[in-house]
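**User:**
My hope is that you can spare some time for a protein that puzzles me. This is the protein in question:
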Amino acid sequence: MRGHPAARTALVLALLVPVALEAQGTRRTPVRDSVRDSVRDVAADSVRATAIALRPVTVSVSRESSRNSLELPFAATRFVVDAARPAPRRASISELLLGVAGVQVQDRGNPSQDPRLAIRGFGARSAFGVRGVRVMRDGVPLTLPDGQTPIDWLDLESVGSVELVRGTAAALYGNAAGGVVDFRSRDPVTNAGTFDGRVWGGGGMRRASVSASGTLPTLGDQVRNAAWLASFTRTNGDGSRAWARLDASSVFARAMATVAGTRLEVQGTHYDTPRAENTGALTAAELARDPSLPDSLNITKRSRKAVRQSQVALLASRGGPTREISATLFTGTRSLDNPLPFAIIGVERRVVGGSLRAGARSTRLAWPLRLTVGVDAQQQGDDRLNFENCADFPSTTTPTTRCPQRGVERGSRRLDQREDVRGIGVYARAEVEAPHGLFVSAALRNDRVDFTVRDHFIVTGNADDSGDRALSATSPMVGIVWRARPLLSVYANIATAFETPTITELTNQDNGAAGLNRSLAPQLTQTVETGVSAFVANRMKLEVAAFRARVQDELVPFDVPNAPGRRAFRNAGQTTRVGVESSAQFAIPIGDVGTAYTWSRFRFDQYLVGTTSYAGKRIPGVAEHQLQAWTTLRRGDLFTTIEATAASSVTANDAATVRASGFATWNWRAGLASVRATQRVIIEPVVGVDNVFDRHFASSVVVNATRNRYFEPGLGRRVYLALRTRLR
């Protein structure tokens, strides 16, 4: 991080603070940790540091049933939210995913834009939502068949744990090049019923959440383990920047039972955001002067969005460790009204899909064999309408063809089309358990994604832009694991993955034409990866992974000149990504310590735009160095947590002539855990400060922006108070 004193300072301090804290802790008597006692039964196999012991994790993102991570030939992580870093506000996925090597979450401070989630750089180009990463909840895909993921409707209050796969081994899930993130819901409590309420406020935002869960008594011989959970969350406020108001409500519920030996679960989600204002990006001068400024054009054009989304899912599984079959069915709708500076976009979406997976383990052969086969299918149908944005059209001006009615924001129709995306993928995975702790596996997946556009706006001067495209690929993966010791494993894999453009990327053409962009190709990735994972003395967990990825036809975004807010996409010929990811977690007598460092060297190899070659330039949007560290100390019911993030500079355009400086930020919070107000009421008050030293920095960049608006500012210092109340 040469040239960035703040970043260098943060790296040094982040490494020294845990050492100093542990030294202080040696003079104290270890005490009973009530927080850990409360989660021990739920998280006995989780990746977390505890004063008792660190244990290997079991994960389900392997597309096996709860495999030990030490037996998987790729980088897999699982952690329980709140276990090692208690009481995050859950305002953003950036809080939940802090400290995971290889993962960068850029919180854009914009309620109209989801955080930008990138794994090994895949997803860093996203203009909205999540791209290049497969996102799921309890195994149900939130990612659409074209690879786009809106995550504004993900209820973080009901998330209990997170599982991740980094790298192209995630190709087993289909249209995702960079990885998989599976948010797992909290398990219901095992007693008859518990109510849980939480409120927090600070930085111009407020949230209130209430949840209830319980387990029912056995309902006869055929119905067992019936349980339920329901959560309601309300978030509102003006935010820390101008034109950043958010009003959002969400409901999540799940019910489950074992019926005649089959585990059944039904889930439902409803999300309603009548207003989320788009504060926009800034120029370098505006960022230096006042990061709370908005993009003035976004105010003039009243840029914002309103969303309503619902989804219902049914999950079923049957079997055990040697033989299992599972199935998922889901359907959902999304309604979007999205005024942007260049147009008002309206989308009515319906999604339906399902998956079927079967797995078995046989010991009849000389070496035990595991075999898994499955199929995923999903369909997305969008009715899309674009209108002229007449928000800045004076009510006293004579009406025009573009804005035919005075004082009406929605002007004349510009686009009316039906967009359908259908994706189907079949896969198989086989693993041989060889002697001497060797596990050799191979996987193969074939995907086909069909795009269809039907133009309903055919008038004089407008040609019929209807069209079809079919994109397909076969993605193999071969891996080997050597479990050299019970708590030490070394792995390597060679994997491929493909990523299609989204339907929005295919239809957002720089010439303004409707229909499908037929020159935009999917990107194909080939990766070689190796890594090691170890548990040391039941007190320390160490992970190191190194990879080299070659990407053909990388999808690159750019702002369309003279069309503020409109993004189009093109392919770079070839890029190379080389990276090293390392993390360490420690259990100390009075708390937990963790660090994660990521080095990323991502370059264009072949990339020609017109007559300009960008070969050798850095891929924009990704920091070459990122270090995150945290320390939690506990004494009785009192805890305090310090979190530090440091990142080097980020380029913002393909020519690497615009950069966002490196930065270092610190967060702190402290509170009381499990304090009994009465015999049945438990309270947990928390006070916290984000960005303690009030650094001005760009937490995210808009790649290849126009109007010099490259920089999305990180939020300044925010003091907040939170209170959780549990009724048992």
In short: DSSP finds six helices and 38 strands in the chain.
